[in-house]
Amino acid sequence: MGDDLGENWWEDGDKPGASHTDEDNIVRDKKKVKSMLKQASSRKRSPQVVDEQAPKLKKKKQPTECFLAKNEEEAGSGEGPKKQKRRRKKKISDIAESGPGTPDDLRKMIQKCLKSKRLAIEMEECSLPDSCFLPVNDLTHTLASYLKESCPKWAKLCKNHSERNSLLMLIVCGSAHRVLELIRLLTSFKGNCRILKLFAKHIKVEEQVKWLRNGINHLGIGTPGRIKTLIEQDAISLDSLKYVIFDWNWRDQKLRRMMDIPEIQQDTITLLESGIIAACRAGSLKLGLF
Model confidence over 169-189: pLDDT tens digits? Predict the structure, then answer.
């Protein structure tokens, strides 16, 4: 029996890697499993550790004033957003409360413009008598019908007129565009009379002076500034002038009358001072407010 064991049989049992290695590995694996279980259980108990390891999300900054929030509050309360009131466009009826122009309107304008420049005695010389005014336009007339009613002997005047550098009638308006429009409106009134355009746009003063000196003209339509210049240069004589008509009631796209524009108003006052007021006071000239 002792022979079957072989030589040095005791040495095989004492080797460290022979019988104890498997047991050591098993013990080591058990320890790893226990440590892993402990870590897993500790993670379940403390979720904050997981949150700390997770990436932090950026917080959105709330606006200091949130108009959407205000609108939501208004919608929740049943009150809608306040609507801005639209400005109502002005109509001619709203502006022209006083109706058509009257002789008193012209007198007030003259007094307002000349009061600071003249003495009280001199202002009396600028007053216009009632007899110098034609009937007031009630805004139902066209230019042709108004002139037919105000100047019934126009055809006879034109036939007898033979003086150069003179006109029988002046129509004063605010712009060159309005001059052309008024000429078209005179088709049924003018007859055989000759009409001159008296404005500064595209027409030189010298050319207009030449027309007045070389031909017989009956009616002139223009702006107060150019008419005043022609009178100052003796191109238009007031001796034969019978009528001066102001395009008083017409309004442009901005609802302005010609006398509402300061430059035109000042030119009109200068034109009246150039001899028209004196002719009206003498009874040889009539004024009309169309």
Answer: 999 999 999 999 999 999 889
Between CA 134 and CA 32 the distance in angstroms is 123
Q: What is the mean pLDDT of residues 209-221?
A: 93
Q: What is the Cα–Cα distance from 143 to 186, expressed in whole angstroms?
A: 7
Beta bridge partners of 220: 170, 196
The pTM score is 0.67
Nearest alpha-carbon partner for 224 in 243, 198, 250: 198
Measured CA to CA, the distance from residue 144 to residue 189 in angstroms comes to: 5
3-state SS track over 28-90: HHHHHHHHHHHHHHHHHHCCHHHHHHCCCCCCCCCCCCCHHHHHHHHHHHCCCCCCCCCCCCC
Bridge-based pairing state of the strands 195-198 and 219-222: parallel
114 Cβ contact list (under 8 Å, min separation 6): 123, 126, 269
User: DSSP per residue over 170-195, as a string?
Assistant: EEE-S-HHHHHHHHHHTHHHHTT--E
Confidence (pLDDT) at 17: 47
Six-digit token string for 244: 């001066």
Q: At residue 151, what is the residue type? A: C
How many angstroms separate the CA atoms of 258 and 80, rounded? 46
| Residue 155 confidence (pLDDT) above 70 | yes
pLDDT(145) > 60:
yes
